[in-house]
Structure formats: C-alpha cells, structure tokens
Amino acid sequence: MKTVAFLTLGCKVNTYESEAMLKLFHADGYQEVPFKEKADVYVINTCTVTNTGDAKSRQMIRKAIRKNSEAIICVVGCYSQVACDEVSSIEGVSIVLGTQYRNQIVELVNEFQSTHQQIIKVADVMNLRTFEDLDIDEFTKNTRAFLKIQDGCNNFCTYCIIPYARGRVRSRQKESVLKQAQSLVDHGFVEIVLTGIHTAGYGVDLDNYSFYDLLVDLTTKVKGLKRLRISSIEMSQISQEIIDLIAHSSIIVDHLHIPIQSGCDATLKRMNRHYTTKQFADKLQELKRLLPSISITTDVIVGFPNESEEEFMQTYQWIKDMHFNQLHVFPYSQRKGTPAAKMKGQIDGQIKHERVKKLMDLSFQLQSEYASWQVGKVLEVLIEEKQGDLMVGHASNYLKVHVDLPHESVGHIYKVKILEAIDTELIGSVIDEKN
Fold first, then answer.
1. Three-class secondary structure of residue 311 per DSSP
2. Which of 129, 149, 328, 381 is the most exposed place for a label (fewest CB within 10 A)?
3. Digit-coded pLDDT (tens) for 406-421
4. What is the DSSP letter of 135?
5. Cα torsion 85, 87, 92, 94: sign
C-alpha cells in the first residue's frame, strides 16, 4: 500500500486545498498516514503570512526528510510560491509547487518516481486570470464543509505578502460552485462555509455576476442546504442588498467575521485599508439594526509601525464601543517584501505583547457578555464532537454549545435551549431535532 502524509500550515484555504490534494492521492490508491509516521510521500502545504510561517514551513520540510530520506517530499503553497529558490535548495525536496498546479500533484509524483529529477512548477501568479478548480465531496476532519469560491486578493495592504503569493482575484465559475455545493450536501453536509483568500471579492472579475448573486443562488438552488456561512467578509463588500438578504434568509447564519485591523484612522491609512472607522461603524449599526441577534467577530493587528500608545487606546476604546463579540488579535510581524517592513517606527516586541494581552482580555470580556446574553434563548446547533460526557457543536452565531446527546448526533443540527453560560461557552438542552 502506497502511503501519503500531509502537514498543513496556515489558513482555511490551505486546509481546503490539502483535502482536495488528498482526494487525488486516494484516487491513485494512496492511504493517508499521520505526518509523524513514515510515509512514501510527504506533502507540506506551506504558509508565508509571517516570517515565522516561513521558518515553520522549513522546519516541517526538514522533519519529513529526517523521517524518511527515501520519501518523495512535495512542498506546495504560499511560501514555496514567494521563495521558490529557497525551498528548492533544501536538500531532499523532490517537488516544488506554488499556489497553482496542485491538481497535477499525483502526476508529478509519478513523474519524479521515473526520473528522480527535482520538479519545480511555480506560475507567475500576477498574470493568472482563471480559478484553479479543486473539488472535494467529503472532508476527513470536519462536520462542516468548506467550499473555496475564489483565490487571490486585489487589496495590497502594506503589511501583507498574500497578493504576491496568490495573485489577483480569480473567481470560480458559478456553475462549478453550485455543482460542488450540491455534491457536498448530497454527501451529508448540512453546513457549507464559503472560503477564499478574499472571499467576498468573488465576482469582481466576472461579467454581471456578484457575490450577492452567488449567495442568492446558493440559498435558493442547492437542495437540502441547511446552513451557509461566510468565512470572512470586508465591510466595504457588505452592500445593503447583502444585509437585507442575510436578514431575511433562514439559511445564511447570524454570524459575520469582518476584519477591522485597527480602530484608528491614521493607522488604517498606513495599512492601506480602504475605509474609515466611521464608514465601518455606520454599516455595523445597520447590520445590528436589521439583525439584532447577529454575532460580529473581527481581526485586529497591534503594534503596526508608528502605532503610538494613544493610537492603540483609540483602537481599544473603539472596539469596546462597537461591541464586537470576539477578537482575533495579532501582533504586527515584519514581513520581508512588504512596504510596512521598511517603515520607520517599528514597535518593540514587549509593547506589542502587552497590547495583545489587553485586547485578548477585552475579547474574553466581550465574548462572555455575548454568551450570557444567550441564556434562555433557543439556538440551532450543529453537533461536531464529544468532549467529556457531552456533545459539542457550534450554534449558528458560532458560539460553542455543550449538550447531552448520543454520539450519532454528529453532523446533525438540533434546536437547543440555552440553560447556562460558563465564560464563553454555553450549556443547553435539546428541544427538538431540526435535521
């Protein structure tokens, strides 16, 4: 039996792409084994968001080579895209792919087996104009299905290397998205998460077909779909028609992840983010007016070059006033090759650490408040796994709920009355089964 082991670093898009590549290996007769075990082929799907991501990618490549020096080592993804020479010069690396050609990975493995010559296939992503289809019908590690609908980003934020690793926005054809969505539902998934590098940028490169149009088609044409989640959306892309659609749809969930990155206009400008805090706040209020129960989570970067204590406190207060329900907080990391890395006024690591802690404490407080607000309400919960004596899943608003159910409940949605909030998590009892 031929064996393959995967190690995936970075984002949900990488997870999706690893699952799609694994499906190709399965079709060629490979069995997956854990990465720490000996395998015939290792696939390291790399991340390059930070310099730490690069270092971790190199570490994992060398780990695979040490585990089996005879193995075929495939390095794919964002790090190998932007640092192809660096990756290909590591002794023992067999195949180097960037963020394209992953649908050819098994053929390239077979080619390497014949020639034993290193294969490097890295496209110039800035010239790519078409989306690379990678299909998945089932996920080995999830009860919700991810559906990649676009690749690339046109924003060029000053701190971010990703447009150089992924190229500009390329949208998947709507027929392909709808077919894939129907296939996932037919395979038993009740929730689909739309994902991409710049998910709601979908459609900017298509004629007369927008992200809103796709949401309408998914919620009306995919038979049996119970829940649709958007992995992340920029506030500039939340149009009034999208707000109205979410407010009236029983399928699109009451949770949006909308990155703000900073609550200070001067910092946003240095980041090259194309909005002001007022524009963000106005739209947020409109969302909450039409959807009073909605959960809004966000990303924040602290310690961006020249961020003074005053600017940081502006961000802190603004986030508190906006009442986000959870924050993902990142200390700014200098990324070689980005404009921000060359900016003067880089912030000391200890200061960044203290600012992260302050915002994480605020996040816990906001999340706990939102959780306690759910007590007495009935939420729809997708059961995912067993933890201790109870089953655990996420409600549509993405809060974690613990409930007493049998193991067969995994993958099903239940209506659950919330009895208690313990910090940021909820305990409830089933009212009835929805699915």
1. helix
2. 129
3. 988 998 999 999 999 9
4. -
5. negative
Distance CA 164, CA 175 (A): 28
Tell me phi and psi for residue 343, to 5 degrees: -70, 145
Residues contacting 262, CB < 8 A, separation 6+:
268, 271, 273, 300, 301, 304, 307, 311, 315
> How far, in Å, CA of 220 to CA of 348, rounded?
51
What does each C-alpha distance from 240 to 193, 243, 246 come to in angstroms?
21, 5, 10
Q: How far is CA 364 from the centre of its chain?
A: 21
Q: Residue 23 burial by CB count (10 A; 0-12/13-18/19+): exposed, middle or buried?
A: middle
Eight-state DSSP code of residue 289: H
Rounded CA-CA distance 367/99 in Å is 35
To the nearest whole percent, how much of the chain has pLDDT over 90? 81
The residues, ordered by sequence, that sit 6+ positions from 134 with a Cβ below 8 Å of its Cβ are 16, 17, 20, 21, 102, 103, 148
Q: Compute the C-alpha angle 422/427/433, nearest 5°.
A: 160
User: What predicted TM-score, i.e. pTM, was given to this entire model?
Assistant: 0.86
